[in-house]
Protein backbone atom coordinates (compact mmCIF):
# COMPACT_ATOMS: atom_id res chain seq x y z
CA UNK A 1 0.00 0.00 0.00
CA UNK A 2 1.33 3.45 -0.93
CA UNK A 3 0.52 5.77 1.96
CA UNK A 4 0.14 9.44 1.01
CA UNK A 5 -0.82 11.11 4.31
CA UNK A 6 0.51 10.58 7.84
CA UNK A 7 -1.35 12.31 10.69
CA UNK A 8 0.64 12.57 13.91
CA UNK A 9 -0.51 13.39 17.41
CA UNK A 10 2.05 15.45 19.35
CA UNK A 11 1.94 14.91 23.13
CA UNK A 12 2.67 11.31 24.03
CA UNK A 13 3.35 10.49 20.38
CA UNK A 14 5.89 12.58 18.45
CA UNK A 15 7.01 14.32 21.65
CA UNK A 16 8.75 12.36 24.39
CA UNK A 17 7.93 12.92 28.06
CA UNK A 18 10.29 15.93 28.09
CA UNK A 19 8.29 17.48 25.21
CA UNK A 20 11.20 17.03 22.81
CA UNK A 21 11.35 15.48 19.32
CA UNK A 22 14.02 12.80 19.06
CA UNK A 23 16.56 12.84 16.24
CA UNK A 24 15.26 9.50 14.90
CA UNK A 25 11.65 10.73 14.86
CA UNK A 26 12.68 13.94 13.11
CA UNK A 27 14.72 12.09 10.49
CA UNK A 28 11.97 9.55 9.72
CA UNK A 29 9.34 12.27 9.38
CA UNK A 30 11.62 14.35 7.14
CA UNK A 31 12.46 11.34 4.93
CA UNK A 32 8.78 10.47 4.48
CA UNK A 33 8.03 14.11 3.68
CA UNK A 34 10.85 14.24 1.12
CA UNK A 35 9.45 11.06 -0.43
CA UNK A 36 6.25 12.98 -1.20
CA UNK A 37 4.10 11.85 1.73
CA UNK A 38 2.08 14.63 3.33
CA UNK A 39 2.70 14.94 7.07
CA UNK A 40 -0.06 16.50 9.17
CA UNK A 41 0.25 17.44 12.82
CA UNK A 42 -2.99 16.52 14.59
CA UNK A 43 -3.24 17.91 18.10
CA UNK A 44 -5.51 19.22 20.81
CA UNK A 45 -3.20 22.20 21.10
CA UNK A 46 -3.78 25.60 19.54
CA UNK A 47 -2.59 26.15 15.97
CA UNK A 48 0.21 28.51 17.00
CA UNK A 49 1.75 25.84 19.23
CA UNK A 50 1.53 23.09 16.59
CA UNK A 51 3.05 25.40 13.97
CA UNK A 52 6.13 25.81 16.17
CA UNK A 53 6.76 22.05 16.14
CA UNK A 54 6.20 21.91 12.39
CA UNK A 55 8.95 24.52 12.08
CA UNK A 56 11.27 22.33 14.17
CA UNK A 57 10.53 19.39 11.87
CA UNK A 58 11.38 21.55 8.88
CA UNK A 59 8.39 20.46 6.81
CA UNK A 60 5.45 22.07 5.05
CA UNK A 61 2.68 20.61 7.15
CA UNK A 62 -1.08 20.96 7.28
CA UNK A 63 -2.09 21.32 10.91
CA UNK A 64 -5.17 19.91 12.61
CA UNK A 65 -5.46 21.98 15.80
CA UNK A 66 -7.89 22.06 18.73
CA UNK A 67 -8.94 18.44 18.13
CA UNK A 68 -10.14 19.16 14.61
CA UNK A 69 -11.93 22.45 15.19
CA UNK A 70 -9.29 24.36 13.22
CA UNK A 71 -7.39 23.13 10.14
CA UNK A 72 -4.83 25.19 8.27
CA UNK A 73 -1.57 24.77 6.40
CA UNK A 74 1.46 25.97 8.35
CA UNK A 75 2.75 28.36 5.71
CA UNK A 76 -0.53 29.74 4.39
CA UNK A 77 -3.15 32.11 5.81
CA UNK A 78 -6.00 30.21 4.16
CA UNK A 79 -8.08 28.33 6.74
CA UNK A 80 -9.16 24.91 5.46
CA UNK A 81 -11.78 24.43 8.20
CA UNK A 82 -12.93 26.25 11.33
CA UNK A 83 -15.80 25.43 13.71
CA UNK A 84 -16.56 28.16 16.24
CA UNK A 85 -18.30 27.51 19.55
CA UNK A 86 -21.51 29.54 19.80
CA UNK A 87 -21.36 32.44 22.24
CA UNK A 88 -24.40 31.25 24.20
CA UNK A 89 -22.98 27.72 24.43
CA UNK A 90 -19.78 29.17 25.88
CA UNK A 91 -21.78 31.10 28.45
CA UNK A 92 -23.68 27.95 29.42
CA UNK A 93 -20.37 26.14 29.86
CA UNK A 94 -19.15 28.98 32.10
CA UNK A 95 -22.33 28.76 34.19
CA UNK A 96 -21.77 25.05 34.78
CA UNK A 97 -18.07 25.23 35.43
CA UNK A 98 -18.03 28.18 37.84
CA UNK A 99 -19.10 25.98 40.78
CA UNK A 100 -15.98 23.83 40.35
CA UNK A 101 -12.45 24.83 41.30
CA UNK A 102 -10.79 23.88 38.00
CA UNK A 103 -8.25 25.55 35.76
CA UNK A 104 -10.36 26.46 32.71
CA UNK A 105 -9.65 28.15 29.43
CA UNK A 106 -11.16 28.94 26.06
CA UNK A 107 -8.91 29.14 23.05
CA UNK A 108 -8.87 30.72 19.62
CA UNK A 109 -6.35 29.53 17.04
CA UNK A 110 -3.58 31.54 18.72
CA UNK A 111 -4.90 32.84 22.05
CA UNK A 112 -5.73 31.19 25.39
CA UNK A 113 -8.12 32.89 27.80
CA UNK A 114 -7.98 31.44 31.31
CA UNK A 115 -9.74 31.91 34.64
CA UNK A 116 -6.56 31.44 36.73
CA UNK A 117 -2.83 32.15 36.36
CA UNK A 118 -1.09 29.58 34.20
CA UNK A 119 0.80 27.03 36.36
CA UNK A 120 4.59 26.97 36.02
CA UNK A 121 4.40 23.54 34.38
CA UNK A 122 1.78 24.62 31.82
CA UNK A 123 3.08 23.64 28.40
CA UNK A 124 2.19 26.98 26.77
CA UNK A 125 3.89 28.95 29.53
CA UNK A 126 7.00 26.79 29.23
CA UNK A 127 7.03 27.21 25.45
CA UNK A 128 6.72 30.99 25.70
CA UNK A 129 9.88 31.11 27.81
CA UNK A 130 11.86 29.84 24.80
CA UNK A 131 9.97 31.30 21.84
CA UNK A 132 10.86 34.57 20.11
CA UNK A 133 8.34 37.35 20.61
CA UNK A 134 6.77 36.92 17.17
CA UNK A 135 5.93 33.28 17.92
CA UNK A 136 4.73 33.55 21.53
CA UNK A 137 1.21 32.34 22.30
CA UNK A 138 -1.07 34.95 23.86
CA UNK A 139 -1.86 33.81 27.42
CA UNK A 140 -4.52 35.95 29.09
CA UNK A 141 -5.92 35.60 32.60
CA UNK A 142 -9.28 37.32 33.16
CA UNK A 143 -11.57 37.64 36.16
CA UNK A 144 -14.74 37.13 34.13
CA UNK A 145 -14.39 35.01 30.98
CA UNK A 146 -18.05 35.69 30.08
CA UNK A 147 -17.19 39.34 29.41
CA UNK A 148 -14.41 38.34 27.03
CA UNK A 149 -16.81 36.09 25.15
CA UNK A 150 -18.91 39.14 24.23
CA UNK A 151 -16.08 40.34 22.00
CA UNK A 152 -16.79 38.87 18.56
CA UNK A 153 -13.10 39.10 17.63
CA UNK A 154 -12.43 36.19 20.01
CA UNK A 155 -13.26 33.28 17.71
CA UNK A 156 -13.52 30.42 20.21
CA UNK A 157 -12.85 26.92 18.88
CA UNK A 158 -12.34 24.94 22.10
CA UNK A 159 -12.89 24.89 25.87
CA UNK A 160 -10.84 22.83 28.33
CA UNK A 161 -11.02 22.05 32.06
CA UNK A 162 -8.03 20.70 33.96
CA UNK A 163 -8.09 19.27 37.48
CA UNK A 164 -6.78 16.40 39.61
CA UNK A 165 -10.23 16.18 41.21
CA UNK A 166 -11.28 13.39 38.86
CA UNK A 167 -14.68 12.81 40.46
CA UNK A 168 -15.85 16.40 40.01
CA UNK A 169 -14.14 16.60 36.64
CA UNK A 170 -16.34 13.72 35.45
CA UNK A 171 -19.43 15.34 36.95
CA UNK A 172 -18.75 18.60 35.13
CA UNK A 173 -18.10 16.72 31.89
CA UNK A 174 -21.49 14.97 32.20
CA UNK A 175 -23.27 18.28 32.88
CA UNK A 176 -21.70 19.95 29.86
CA UNK A 177 -22.40 16.90 27.70
CA UNK A 178 -26.08 17.22 28.68
CA UNK A 179 -26.19 20.61 26.91
CA UNK A 180 -26.12 18.67 23.64
CA UNK A 181 -24.46 19.49 20.33
CA UNK A 182 -20.94 19.13 21.68
CA UNK A 183 -17.96 16.83 21.24
CA UNK A 184 -16.10 16.06 24.49
CA UNK A 185 -12.83 14.10 24.76
CA UNK A 186 -9.80 13.70 27.00
CA UNK A 187 -6.20 14.29 25.97
CA UNK A 188 -5.02 13.39 29.48
CA UNK A 189 -6.52 11.77 32.58
CA UNK A 190 -6.78 15.17 34.28
CA UNK A 191 -8.79 17.06 31.64
CA UNK A 192 -11.68 17.17 29.22
CA UNK A 193 -11.93 19.24 26.05
CA UNK A 194 -15.08 20.62 24.43
CA UNK A 195 -15.68 21.36 20.75
CA UNK A 196 -18.73 21.51 18.49
CA UNK A 197 -20.40 18.22 17.63
CA UNK A 198 -18.67 16.69 14.65
CA UNK A 199 -15.28 18.17 15.55
CA UNK A 200 -12.78 15.41 16.17
CA UNK A 201 -9.39 14.41 14.90
CA UNK A 202 -11.07 11.68 12.87
CA UNK A 203 -13.48 14.02 11.09
CA UNK A 204 -10.62 16.47 10.54
CA UNK A 205 -8.45 13.77 8.94
CA UNK A 206 -11.38 12.90 6.69
CA UNK A 207 -11.79 16.57 5.71
CA UNK A 208 -8.08 16.91 5.06
CA UNK A 209 -8.02 13.72 2.98
CA UNK A 210 -10.87 15.01 0.83
CA UNK A 211 -9.15 18.39 0.52
CA UNK A 212 -6.03 16.72 -0.94
CA UNK A 213 -7.86 13.98 -2.83
CA UNK A 214 -6.36 11.20 -0.73
CA UNK A 215 -8.21 7.93 -0.11
CA UNK A 216 -8.88 6.59 3.38
CA UNK A 217 -6.73 3.52 2.70
CA UNK A 218 -3.79 5.82 1.92
CA UNK A 219 -3.83 7.42 5.39
CA UNK A 220 -1.79 6.55 8.48
CA UNK A 221 -2.78 8.02 11.86
CA UNK A 222 -0.67 7.63 15.02
CA UNK A 223 -1.74 8.55 18.56
CA UNK A 224 -2.02 7.52 22.19
CA UNK A 225 -5.06 9.07 23.91
CA UNK A 226 -8.87 9.30 23.81
CA UNK A 227 -8.81 12.30 21.50
CA UNK A 228 -6.78 10.23 18.99
CA UNK A 229 -9.25 7.33 18.88
CA UNK A 230 -11.45 8.75 16.11
CA UNK A 231 -8.55 9.26 13.70
CA UNK A 232 -7.01 5.88 14.52
CA UNK A 233 -10.35 4.23 13.72
CA UNK A 234 -10.75 6.28 10.52
CA UNK A 235 -7.32 5.64 9.03
CA UNK A 236 -6.44 2.88 6.61
CA UNK A 237 -3.59 2.17 9.04
CA UNK A 238 -4.42 3.29 12.57
CA UNK A 239 -1.39 3.00 14.84
CA UNK A 240 -1.34 3.21 18.65
CA UNK A 241 1.70 4.17 20.66
CA UNK A 242 3.18 1.62 23.04
CA UNK A 243 2.51 4.09 25.87
CA UNK A 244 -1.11 4.51 24.75
CA UNK A 245 -4.15 3.48 26.73
CA UNK A 246 -5.29 -0.14 26.33
CA UNK A 247 -8.56 0.69 24.55
CA UNK A 248 -6.63 2.81 22.06
CA UNK A 249 -4.35 -0.13 21.33
CA UNK A 250 -7.32 -2.50 20.96
CA UNK A 251 -8.80 -0.23 18.25
CA UNK A 252 -5.53 0.11 16.32
CA UNK A 253 -4.32 -2.08 13.49
CA UNK A 254 -0.76 -1.88 14.77
CA UNK A 255 0.96 -0.95 18.06
CA UNK A 256 4.38 0.67 17.79
CA UNK A 257 6.99 1.45 20.45
CA UNK A 258 6.60 4.20 23.08
CA UNK A 259 7.02 7.94 22.67
CA UNK A 260 10.27 7.73 24.66
CA UNK A 261 11.62 5.03 22.36
CA UNK A 262 11.09 6.47 18.86
CA UNK A 263 7.71 4.78 18.30
CA UNK A 264 6.73 7.20 15.53
CA UNK A 265 10.00 6.69 13.64
CA UNK A 266 9.71 2.91 13.90
CA UNK A 267 6.15 2.98 12.51
CA UNK A 268 7.12 5.27 9.61
CA UNK A 269 10.18 3.16 8.83
CA UNK A 270 8.02 0.01 8.78
CA UNK A 271 5.08 1.24 6.71
CA UNK A 272 6.49 4.05 4.57
CA UNK A 273 10.28 3.90 4.32
From TrEMBL:
Keywords: Hydrolase. It comes from Clostridium brassicae. InterPro entries: Cof, HAD-like_sf, HAD-SF_hydro_IIB, HAD_sf. One of its GO terms (molecular function) is hydrolase activity. The keyword Magnesium does not apply. SUPFAM superfamilies: HAD-like. Transmembrane segments: none annotated. This is Cof-type HAD-IIB family hydrolase. Pfam families: Hydrolase_3. The lineage of its organism: Bacteria, Bacillati, Bacillota, Clostridia, Eubacteriales. It comes from the Bacteria. The keyword Hydrolase applies.
Amino acid sequence: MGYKLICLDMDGTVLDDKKKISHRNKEAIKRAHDKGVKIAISTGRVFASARYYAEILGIKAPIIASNGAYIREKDKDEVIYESLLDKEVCKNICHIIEKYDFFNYFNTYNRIIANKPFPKQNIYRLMNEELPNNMKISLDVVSDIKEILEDDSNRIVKFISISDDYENLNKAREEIDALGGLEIVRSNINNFEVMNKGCSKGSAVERLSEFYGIKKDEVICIGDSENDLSMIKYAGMGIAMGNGEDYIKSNAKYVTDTNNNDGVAKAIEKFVL
